[in-house]
Amino acid sequence: MARPLALTLGEPAGIGPDITIAAWRRRRELDLPPFYIVGSRDFMAQRAQHLGAVIEVTACEPREAASVFAAALPVVEVGLPVTAMPGHPDASSAPAAIAAIDLVVRHVFAGLADAIVTNPIAKNVLYRSGFSEPGHTEYLAKLAAQATGIAVRPVMMLWSPELAVVPVTIHLPLSEVATALDADLVVETGRIIARDLAARFGIARPRLAVAGLNPHAGEDGAMGEEDFAIVRPAVEQLKAEGIAARGPLPADTMFHPAARASYDAALCMYHDQALIPIKTLAFDHAVNVTLGLPFVRTSPDHGTAFDIAGSGRADPASLIAAIRLAARLAARARAAHAA
């Protein structure tokens, strides 16, 4: 039986509350699956009033959320005060954002929620509070390891119907990418992608296109040795393991329509190599999916947008896409478990 999706509050001063309210208001029109947000009933009601949204907001337990969803936005109390005003993080921001993440992970492991959808956080706000993880993804991996006793390596995939991309290295200065890159990292990332595309997305034999690091994939060493020494051996290892991988490919010819039709996911060597094409093609509806976790986690592919928080101008399209994808992946996981 389907259970509701658990949404985190995210940064309360950002647009997460706004787009959650907007998504709930379109629940019937878009036939969205039931979800609840972990936060504060009073805070969400105040934000709805600020936005001019005449809606019912109800505090409930996760088990009650599906029955509440049709008539009211279900809120599971985070147990901390939430007082931030739109665009202005305050002392309540980081504790509430972190506690909401902690709580949804407990819910999904307890079988109270089918999947997790995380609203955007403000890393600088969390860092000032003493948060020590690089970001959302790493913190979720830490919580998963604590819950299961098994270390996991999370992989960030940006997904849309047009394109799916995975950066092998993520938030590194470009000057540090070549040093951080090695064949084992490329191979491990490729394995996780192939496994989760098969298990969660139902792609029988995922096809991976692996970008080169350098222009023209290094021109056989004329433009740097990394593609010959690191990327090519990694691709050969993936192929030897039965994974349909090819590369290194010149990144400048990987993203036109005919090229995209030839693969299911593109492995890119650094952040912008992956994110520029998908944000060009699917800026308003791309979804951040974390592979490698023992539960489904999706997120909108954008930030907190403090400048428009509380204005009513925030577009909920990416959150809606994240909700729909989380429900799709969770349904497949349920079916596989039943089988």
Write the layout of secondary structure elements.
Elements lengths: L4 E4 L7 H10 L1 H4 L4 E5 L1 H11 L5 E3 L5 H4 L4 E5 L15 H17 L6 E2 L5 H6 L7 H13 L6 E5 L4 E4 L6 H7 L2 H17 L7 E5 L14 H15 L3 E6 L7 H4 L4 E4 L2 H11 L5 E5 L5 E4 L16 H22 L1
Parallel strand pairs: 1-2, 1-5, 2-4, 3-4, 5-12, 7-10, 8-9, 8-10
Antiparallel strand pairs: 6-7, 6-11, 11-12
Helix pairs in contact: 5-7, 9-10
Following the backbone from N to C, one meets helices and strands in this order, namely EHHEHEHEHEHHEEHHEHEHEHEEH
Terminus-to-terminus distance: 14 Å
Domain count = 2
In total, how many beta strands?
12
CATH-defined fold name of the largest domain: Isopropylmalate Dehydrogenase
| Beta-strand proportion | 15-25%
Low-pLDDT stretches: none
Count of DSSP-assigned helices: 13
| Broad CATH class of the largest domain | Alpha Beta
How can the largest sheet be summarized?
Answer: 12 strands, mixed
Q: Main sheet: which strands, in order across?
A: 3-4-2-1-5-12-11-6-7-10-8-9
Instruction: Please state the overall shape, judged from the principal axes of the Cα atoms.
Output: globular
CATH superfamily of the largest domain: Isopropylmalate Dehydrogenase
- State the helical fraction: 40-55%
Mean pLDDT: 94
User: Per CATH, which architecture of the largest domain?
Assistant: 3-Layer(aba) Sandwich
Coarse structural class? alpha/beta
Assembly context of the chains: single chain
Rg, nearest Å: 20 Å
